[in-house]
Amino acid sequence: MIIELKNIYKNFGAVQALTDVSFSIGEAEIHGLLGENGAGKSTLMNILGGVLPPTSGTIVIDGTSYTHLTPHQAVELGISFIHQELNLVNDLKVFENLFINRELTKSKIFLNKKEMIRKSHEVFKRMNIDIDPTLFVRELDTLEKQLVEIARAILFESKLIIMDEPTTALTDKEINNLFTIMRELKKNGISCIYISHKMPELFVICDKYTVLRDGKFIDSGFFKDINENKATELLVGRKIIEDKDIHRNQLDTEIVFEVQDLSCPPYFNNINFNVKKGEVVAITGLFGDGRGELSEALFGARKVSSGKVLKNGKQLNLSSIKSVMKSGVGMIPRNRKERSIIKDMNILNNVSIAHFTSQHKKILIKNKEEIERFEKNQKVTNIKVGSPKDPITSLSGGNQQKVIFARWFELDSDVYLLDNPTQGIDVGAKFEIYKLINYLAEQGKSIIVFSSEFPEIYKVCHRCIIMYRGEINKIFKHDELNEVDMMFYSTGSNKKE
Amino acid sequence: MSGKTFDKAKFKEYMKTKGWPFLKNILINHNYVVSLILLLIIGRIASPNFLSFASLINLIKSSAFIGIIALGMTMVIISGNIDLSVGSILAFTAANTAIMFNNTHSILLSVGYAMFIGTLLGFVNGFFVGKAKVASFIVTLATMAAFRSLTVQQGQGGPILIDQEAYYSILRTIGYGTFLKIPYLVWIFVLIVGLMIFLMTKTKFGRYVYAVGSNEKAAKLSGINVDRIKIYIFSLTGLLTGIAAFLYVTRFGSVDTATAGKSYELDAIAAVAIGGTSMAGGKGFIQGTFFGIIVLYSIDSVLSALRVPAFVNDLIKGILILGAVLLQKVLNNRKVNN
Q1: Of A331, A456, B43, B299, which cross-links A417 as Cys (Cβ 3.0–4.6 Å)?
Q2: Predicted structure pTM score
Q3: Digit-coded pLDDT (tens) for A118-129
């Protein structure tokens, strides 16, 4: 199948989301679509998937021109869109999900379960994977869910599969499995459009690239002709900030934050570590390491069975989030959409909310103070907004995350827990977040970053704690840190001898 | 008239920067105003008396009981919950207020008692929703049945009567009296509307209600004690229902335990919906509900002015509720797409 999007324009009211964008993909091609958040990648893919109509422009598929597609048409033409938030029904079984809305029947009334299960087995076999089609989807892990979506696309003979950041929740090994399957699909003439922020992956798996920036087409070509630096440059449109802009400040000796024998089975056990003034400690590991639960526990959002946490020598009351906040601990949770953003509120109110719960003594709130509060923090965090009274959902991911940083900066806590602070934001914004972490450390704050990305950890931390199955497996100083060792201890290889 | 001449360019500029955005905001965020105006115009065309001061005041007066309850309901729905028990809370509170009054002949004690009982029953709802974490639909469905049953038991199936002599000399003035030609009921209703708008827009508590309804997890991780906020919300709704119950007693002079407040919850929810509050929580306005309840009540009078047989009133009400909500949906979608 050969698809060409020609001179696509799309505006949402006054906002020009796409300006004269052209894009083409041929048969048996894996095509990387690059762009920062808000560059127009999703809009373009939604147009291809029939979710949005373009304002103007044409879509040419195998020689036939369309002004727009409907979702139904897109499916009929063999285009499958695998969204970042997977579209599977957790309470149905795998095969039921595969055949949803296209159930096989006996005499048009009764479901033909046997046949559906047989065909599911068949498609999994083709993909060389081992998933039991009679399991409930909720019992699957993220990779398996992703694979089920891909299986669905293959089952109904899709010719083009659009994958929107399929690897964010996957481990390296799982990513490799996914790539093997994608290469297999390519052999069978199926094309993929692959959207990702992870540069190395794009170079490994994709043949061609197209870069969008600010809704405009920037460049297209073969990955083999460029390197990562070049790609990043195309992406952000300026020379990337060199790593030397991000540095580690000198450490104080004063211990601010101390975790003693903290346990919360089955997630983590006997966690002991401390953080000094002005220090950035990274905590990392692989899926099932318990670090997400640990971050919640340190903030009082998860009950622990034993152990204690001290701040400046005083024990924290871990049964109340508010009391932890008042003791001077702030937290930026992972998964911004689910845990941070209050979507119906404007930017101002989103900034103020934590201030109200822990520092605002009065019952009444004043608009003027809110604006002052926002502007004060805007200077530090460099949030780009039209009006602070716009809804927070009007911002790009990176700017939303900066609003959340502003929410916690306002409290001027001594300790900051940052759980996956750069999740789902683009390269440019990531660097700005690293600079903010730097800034905090320079102010003498103690910072714990929970992350799984080595380059990020390497850039910002003084020390790195590696967890394996809920226990601290190894602690590295920054000088000793390298990616191979990090993987070695994250996978628990030292314990398997 | 001011000495200035009418400056056309200036006016155009004003409309462009302030006027149109303002109108657009009304149309998109506060379109309940539009439905009300439309309805009033229809009423006016049908009957010349319709838009008189007296008829408007009358409209607000008759909507006061359910209106006050609907204000609480707005808060409950913004927080992402629902309260089906308000009708039963009204009945139970009104019955006990009547008994209190019969025993004491004191307005102050009766009001206090009504507010206390209402708050207490609301607290029961809030406890199960907030602490026990049972879905509010289920909790209040259960308490709706339970509170009603208690009331009927208290009245032995019949009405609870108020000492008529004392009623006429003391209580009735509140239900029927006026101040500056406007009934007390209207004054009280409007005062509570003002207080509730203030509470929801100018206080931390109001902000928390929106936060909990919009994203409970994020609210919790921002340090909001979500359980406690839910208890407050239901208790406050109980308190408002208690006030409505007291007014109900002053107006009607007796409480029929089986029918008092029956299906008030549905009218209250309808008013909230017409007023543009999102049933999914997180979005809504108190003033929307105020307009919503007036729309709901003016339907009756518009229809009678149009000489539509009363039997189909509820049918037309249903259509209008659905129509209002659909209109908001369409306008909201346009807002999102633009």
Answers
A1: A331
A2: 0.79
A3: 999 988 887 778
